[in-house]
Amino acid sequence: MSINQSNLSAPQFGYDFVVATTLQSLNSTMFEFINTANFPVISKYYWTDANNDTVEVDLQTLMNTPQSNTDPSGTAGVDPATVADWDGTGTQPTGMIQIGGSSFACGFKAQVGIPPGFALPGAPNPQNLPVLPNIVSFNQTSMSVIFNLYCSSFQVFQPTWGRRGVGSYLNQSQPSGAAWYLQTVIPINKILDNSNLPKAVQKQLDALDAMGEDFSVQRLFIDLDQPSKATASSIIFGGIQPGSALQTVISEVFTGAYCTTLNASGMPALGYTILPNTPPPLSASLALGTMEIEIVPYAAPSGGGNTLPGLDTFNYLCSQSATLPAANLLTWNWFDTQEEAAQYSGVVAVNRKALAGYFASELTQHVANNCLQPTVSTSTSWPTMYWNFSMAYVTPPPASYPSSGSTILSFSYGSQNSYDDSGTKWPPMLDYHSFDMRSSYSLDVQCEGNTITIVQHLVVYAEVCYMDTCESGNFVDKTITDVYTLSIGQGGNLVVSPPTSTPQDNSEKPDANWFVDLFTSINDIVDWVHNNVSFAATNLTDVPLNTMQQFVFPGGKTFAYADVAFSDTQDLVSHVTYTTPA
Fold this sequence. Notes:
This protein is of the alpha+beta class.
């Protein structure tokens, strides 16, 4: 399965995490979105001003402005949308006289939605209705997105002027079974470029970002539905017979006055208003600093052409910092078959290094509880000799992050050696004694399949000497191996089972033989060291479950998470489905 091939830590990538959705799921969810979002009906009217320019005017101003031969003239209370279609023959429809005495140029009414008389791609179609083309398609050659904005209703009205006034009047609406659509071609690098957006829209988008909606269909719809990001040559109006009078009028309205107006204001096409969403129940553990979008075409295993365009993926390449590595094309498919892709909307993958960095910050305190610096001392109050020691907690060393293999994170600590003695040993001095101690601790995090294995190893070594007799060993030598099995909650949080724990205790308690002990009593000293250093062993405990259960994938409101596992190169990956269209 291709999800196992995720390798974001490869030198040519380095993205902290990637959110990828298939073309077929993106279109399916976007169709559902525009079918349920209840878009407003937008009415636009244009007239010719005193400079002979075609400019937008609101309906009330158009209807109430007095008619004049020199200034912009109103329609004497007539709404141009209500004047019937007229080919210039026979009796003029009601209101045509008022239109003829005005400066009215053109207008339209439209509502984003599903055109009547069509079936949605992939939806049941018992009536065998024509199926709408995709809303979004990819052009890998030009690195662009083709975006079709469909309307559930569309009406356009425009007078044709002759030498004696209005020669005809076009007033036509989108019929059932015909899809009129505004098509824009937007370069990939423009989709997330919000510099042309009005402040009000940007503010609402910022609110979505704060709620974790960076990857929502709504956010993408807004990004694509921006004429200001397209050029005049990249905007067309389709679904109408080329060369017809209607096509001419539509082109004039949309690529002329309409697009000019929208490019000037930067407002979303057809007056789209951002829908509020409930904040995600859990905050993502990896903060989004910046992202770019990349199209990854499906690569046939045989090396042939792209026979499954529905498996092309729309990839958000994400970094926690303000900079992002170069956007190089990912070298694997996220899905191999349409059957597999039909189960999910896409994939979220977290770079092993980003995950290890998160775990390192969560584990630092636990590691610090086991990093011990011993300090020893010896003294004499004849005829009594003293061995003393203390253990101090120290700041743990920085973590290391292996670039390959199942171990993604390691801590390794070794204390400074602490030594003291009572002075000269030769010639034999009855009060000579010494003390030597050091400690070490390591923690490794290993990831494979759907398990995390944490191995901890704590060692405290000591040597005590009296005259020529020394006893030494690892007074503490303890290993704990904990295996945690992962699953995932619907909000993108890791769910971690209580660990299967395997302790191993190789601690030593050295003993001198009875004859040596008879003269030195060194075993009493060993017992004392053993009893007093044992606290270090009790500090070595299982890593708390919440250390890992606090990790939350990005996109917790946008997606539901189906599973979780590690790829072959230890990226943390999960299949996802869109939760709601918005």
